[in-house]
């Protein structure tokens, strides 16, 4: 007879102080769910603890309007902003099951697409410290005089719709790499002199989850799950091409978001911004056409996606077809129950200059949200074979001054684990 129970697991590498931070040399958290007669409900995994923010290197002074007036952090990410990499691996063989690099960049698109303003002001605000605007996050979290409790899920391929994992066959190790403070924080006006020592700190960290015991698991079998794979590229020209040999046989979808390369790990700028490519001095670099290719041929769309600005620079409306592809690549549209990715945050009526009233940080609902994506399988089943085929995105744009733009690509695919009591475990991608 089966029964459910809750587990609480402490990280295996927490220092004696119980405090974890990138600044103090503890940038990695490792949690092990060892081999046991239980089946893990992956959707129930949560990381909980307390977040403290300090304005001095000694960790004795909290930020304030007087001590650190320029200090900000991404309100649309909240606690998710502290995660740089998320890794799921077999706890014994150390085989990697899923590895999401640039996790904060992934969540910068995922959260606005999957949640609306009411979520940001409600349950996400309470649990993940996600806020509707930077003022609320600054006042309630960044300038808090005490630590702030949090409890967050870990959205990933494995934890989103992959069912239950038999721990008796596949014990699990979860590894979280923390983001540098220069990526988590940013300055309100680009000046960093008064905030250069600021750092965040986690304490009381633990993982909670739900498992089912008393379940018979065959000695051999195959467990299918979703996986997110991340890639990085740089755009510098008017005809930009992203090429990758994915080596994945069941690709379900892919999306890419953008940020100026100079913003990444730069305390003077918000490295989690997700707006369209821009020129160094001349504003937005208009995306004009987009094509998705498989081995050099347009696929699954046999036509070029034509931006509303391909023929004129006067319009400020939304690229509806581009945004539709972007939304569906993260989650098929039949599963869209609510989203913060509406016309107000996907239009072109904003400037790159943060100090202007039309600046990107003054936009509602978590600021500008822009990306490019393609859906291959709306049923989330078999996907498209890219094991021997090249994946490409070709874009024409207005990058005429060579301003480097970082492009973060995230590919969702179906992966299988074949387990056998005699032969062990094999990951089939």
Outline, from the CA principal axes? globular
Counted by DSSP, the helix tally is 7
Oligomeric organization of the protein chains = single chain
- Biggest sheet overview: 6 strands, antiparallel
* Full CATH superfamily name of the largest domain: Adenovirus Type 2 Hexon, domain 4
Short summary:
The protein has 429 residues and is mainly beta.
Set down the secondary structure blueprint:
Blueprint: E1 3-9, E2 19-20, E3 28-33, E4 38-54, E5 71-73, E6 83-90, E7 96-101, H1 103-114, H2 117-121, H3 123-127, H4 134-142, E8 148-153, E9 164-166, E10 172-178, H5 181-184, E11 185-187, E12 199-213, E13 220-235, E14 239-244, E15 248-260, E16 289-294, E17 297-298, E18 305-306, H6 320-330, H7 343-346, E19 372-375, E20 384-386, E21 391-396, E22 405-420, E23 424-428
Antiparallel strand pairs: 1-12, 2-12, 3-10, 4-8, 4-9, 4-12, 5-11, 6-7, 6-10, 13-22, 14-21, 15-19, 15-20, 15-22, 16-17, 16-18, 16-21, 22-23
Structure description:
The chain has 429 residues and is mostly beta strands. The chain has two domains: 3-219, Adenovirus Type 2 Hexon, domain 4 (Distorted Sandwich); 226-417, Adenovirus Type 2 Hexon, domain 4, CATH 2.70.9. Helix content is 12%, strand content 38%. The chain has helices at 103-114, 117-121, 123-127, 134-142, 181-184, 320-330, 343-346, and strands at residues 3-9, 19-20, 28-33, 38-54, 71-73, 83-90, 96-101, 148-153, 164-166, 172-178, 185-187, 199-213, 220-235, 239-244, 248-260, 289-294, 297-298, 305-306, 372-375, 384-386, 391-396, 405-420, 424-428. Strands 1, 2, 4, 8, 9 and 12 form a six-stranded antiparallel beta sheet that branches. Strands 13, 15, 19, 20, 22 and 23 form a six-stranded antiparallel beta sheet that branches. The longest helix is centred in the N-terminal third of the chain and has 12 residues, at 103-114. The model has no long low-confidence stretch (mean pLDDT 88).
């Amino acid at each position: 007879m089966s029964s459910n129970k809750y587990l609480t697991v402490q990280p295996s590498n927490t220092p004696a102080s119980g405090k974890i931070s990138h600044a103090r040399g503890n940038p990695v958290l490792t949690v092990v769910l060892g081999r046991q007669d239980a089946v893990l409900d992956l959707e129930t995994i949560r990381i909980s603890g307390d977040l403290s923010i300090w304005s001095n290197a000694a960790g004795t002074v909290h930020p304030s309007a007087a001590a650190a007036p320029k200090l900000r952090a991404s309100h649309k990410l909240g606690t998710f902003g502290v995660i740089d990499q998320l890794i799921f691996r077999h706890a014994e063989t150390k085989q990697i099951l899923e590895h999401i690099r640039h996790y904060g960049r992934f969540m910068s698109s995922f959260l606005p697409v999957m949640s609306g303003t009411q979520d940001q002001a409600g349950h996400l605000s309470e649990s993940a410290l996600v806020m509707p605007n930077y003022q609320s996050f600054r006042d309630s979290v960044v300038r808090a005089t005490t630590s702030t409790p949090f409890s967050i899920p870990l959205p990933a391929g494995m934890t989103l719709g992959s069912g239950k994992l038999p721990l008796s066959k596949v014990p699990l190790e979860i590894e979280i790499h923390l983001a540098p403070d220069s990526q988590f924080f940013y300055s309100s006006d680009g000046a960093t002199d008064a905030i250069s020592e600021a750092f965040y700190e986690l304490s009381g960290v633990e993982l909670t989850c739900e498992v089912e015991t008393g379940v018979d698991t065959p000695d051999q079998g195959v467990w299918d799950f979703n996986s997110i794979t991340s890639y990085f590229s740089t755009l510098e020209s008017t005809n930009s091409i992203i090429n990758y040999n994915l080596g994945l046989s069941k690709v379900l979808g892919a999306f890419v978001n953008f940020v100026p390369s100079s913003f990444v790990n730069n305390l003077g700028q918000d490295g989690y911004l997700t707006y369209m490519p821009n020129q160094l001095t001349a504003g937005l670099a208009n995306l004009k056409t987009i094509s998705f290719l498989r081995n050099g041929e347009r696929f699954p769309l046999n036509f070029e996606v034509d931006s509303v600005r391909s023929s004129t620079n006067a319009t400020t409306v939304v690229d509806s077809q581009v945004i539709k592809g972007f939304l569906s690549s993260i989650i098929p549209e039949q599963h869209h129950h609510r989203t913060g990715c509406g016309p107000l945050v996907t239009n072109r009526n904003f400037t790159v200059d943060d100090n202007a009233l039309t600046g990107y940080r003054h936009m509602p609902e978590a600021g500008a949200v822009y990306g490019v994506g393609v859906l291959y399988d709306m049923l989330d089943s078999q996907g498209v074979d890219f094991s021997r085929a090249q994946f490409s995105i070709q874009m024409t744009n207005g990058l005429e001054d060579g301003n480097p733009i970082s492009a973060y690509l995230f590919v969702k695919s179906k992966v299988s684990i074949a387990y056998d009591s005699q032969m062990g475990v094999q990951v089939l991608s």
